[in-house]
Amino acid sequence: MSRADAHADALSVHEAPTADTLLATRDLVIDIPERADSSPLHLTVNPGQCWGILGPNGAGKSTLLHTLARLRPPRAGGIELTGQPLGSLSRPDLARRLGLVFQNHHDGFPATVLETALIGRHPYLRPWDIETREDVDAARAALATVDLDGMEGRQVDTLSGGERQRLALATVLTQDPQVLLLDEPTSQLDLHHQVSVLQRVREIAGGERRAAVMALHDVNLAARFCDHLLLMFPDGGACWGPTRSMLVPAALERLYNQALSVGEVDGHPVFLPRVE
Amino acid sequence: MTRSFLLAAGVLLPASLLSLVVALAWGSVAIPLGELPRVLTGEASALHATLITELRLPRALAAFAAGGLLGVAGALMQVLLRNPLADPYVLGLSGGASVGALLAMLAGLSMFSVSAAAFAGAMLSTLIVFGLAHGTGSWTATRLLLTGVVVAAGWGALISFLLAVSPTAELPGMLYWLMGDVSHARHPGPAWGVLVFVVLAAMPLGRTLNVLARGPMQAAALGVSVRPVEWSIYIAASLITATAVTQVGAVGFVGLIVPHMLRLVFGNDQRVILPASALAGGILLTLADTLARTIIAPEQLPVGVITAMLGVPVFLFLLYRSR
């Protein structure tokens, strides 16, 4: 057993998948070029759960999310979505069950805010179908939940970074998948919108048939809004389990290679970088 | 979407008809509009009837089909490469076609063989660019674009070489071909067939293309099988460009500015832009060809000169007016 595996097993809490499990990985090793050794992941994401992925730059958070969305192949192991192997689903079928918000957004051509949110309905429409009033209403409702109502006619390239990020979230809300994957959804948001976006994700994932998995950079937001955490170490090791059992200061210090001070605010643990 | 579709249809369909009527009526011999219906009923004078049915009608239809094909090819290439500056020729298609056509002219072959050689050259260029861009690494829009631009530069050098070594008597015909020339087009049937087929086939793909314009990763996450769709677009755009080139030579500018102008007016929904590009491209080339054969009649100008002269100011005006 490698060093990375040994470390992962020390903290990890393994849950066996059940009939309800939305997303399960079996011996999943993500494919990061030039990295020889990663510990296999046995994640079990059940309905109602909100997972946070924490790790330093380059640890493989985005690669993992892209692998879970079948945008790149894993090096080894398998992924199951609602009990079916990910590879056995057609792309549109997959898109109806699982949605991904990317970290970066490329807008090649001019488009309005409403048009951009409306593409979330694409997996539900057959080739000749035209978006119906219900589709437009769904897009408008999604825009309203991220505070973009009233901006439907704006050109996307006139939005600020944070507004563009909230629009990406609105697109995935319009897509309405069971499993929501989010790649640093709050990286460009102001304090209020960080909290309101994560609350919204929490609400959606807290329902009976949905779950969310998001890569985050802020330990304290993750500690506050996620019920499960996956820590991805720079050496390829990983450990995961309920948030409470993962917030071990020594593990977090090793994760970021950064000394931390731990405190308590409003009954929640708070981690701040310790600067000498 | 429905509104801009109806608006585009309401403007462009009558304009298409009008452009064809103008192409029939104008020329070195002007034919009064009242005379046009009489050609159908057989009451027109023999000269007018011959002028229209044997010269102007096939030529106008060929120009319209070729313009439509170039417009659609441009719209497809711009989505494929996610670059508003892409045009049907950006991947070296016109260069390959031109080299093929010039070689056939040098060999003294018939106009039909010149067209066939142009088609073969265009497809050869497509295969070269696709094979090289595919290469060993990943297949990205930027890589494809760069490969195409460099291959096009190579063809450009070959064209200059062929022109330099050609006998002087051959040069005017060659230059006309390079700038676009509808005067040899007599059989617009196949081009119309391709145009109608491509527009009908691309319409249901329109929303998929809208999603693809947001980038391949985003498209895949929304359920698009990106690679097969990209290949289909590439092959379709190459085939229809080659078809257009065999009809009218290397007419520039239509594929670049027509989809772009339409986006400025009707927005960027491919379900509107693709059929609208077919109509607007057809209108532009039909009117341009009519001018090309009337301005200095009985002499004719290369139609590519007129498309650029008409297209540049209209395009700049729309760009200036847009937000």
UniProtKB/TrEMBL annotation, chain A:
Pfam families recorded: ABC_tran
Keywords, in A-Z order: ATP-binding, Nucleotide-binding
InterPro entries for the chain: AAA+_ATPase, ABC_transporter-like_ATP-bd, ABC_transporter-like_CS, P-loop_NTPase
GO terms for MF: ATP binding; ATP hydrolysis activity
Domain ABC transporter as annotated: residue spans: 23-259
Superkingdom of origin: Bacteria
CDD domains recorded: ABC_Iron-Siderophores_B12_Hemin (cd03214)
PANTHER family according to UniProt: ABC TRANSPORTER ATP-BINDING PROTEIN, HEMIN IMPORT ATP-BINDING PROTEIN HMUV
Protein name: ABC transporter
Organism from which the protein derives: Thioalkalivibrio halophilus
Automatic annotation (TrEMBL), chain B:
Species of origin: Thioalkalivibrio halophilus
Compartmental location: Cell membrane
Membrane topology category: Multi-pass membrane protein
A Pfam entry, by short name: FecCD
Gene Ontology CC: plasma membrane
Transmembrane regions listed in the UniProt entry: 60-81, 88-106, 112-132, 144-169, 189-212, 233-260, 272-292, 301-320
Keyword Transmembrane (UniProt): yes
Name of this chain's protein: ABC transporter permease
Record's keyword annotation contains Transmembrane: yes
GO MF annotation: an example: transmembrane transporter activity
Family: Belongs to the binding-protein-dependent transport system permease family. FecCD subfamily.
Record keywords, A-Z: Cell membrane, Membrane, Transmembrane, Transmembrane helix, Transport
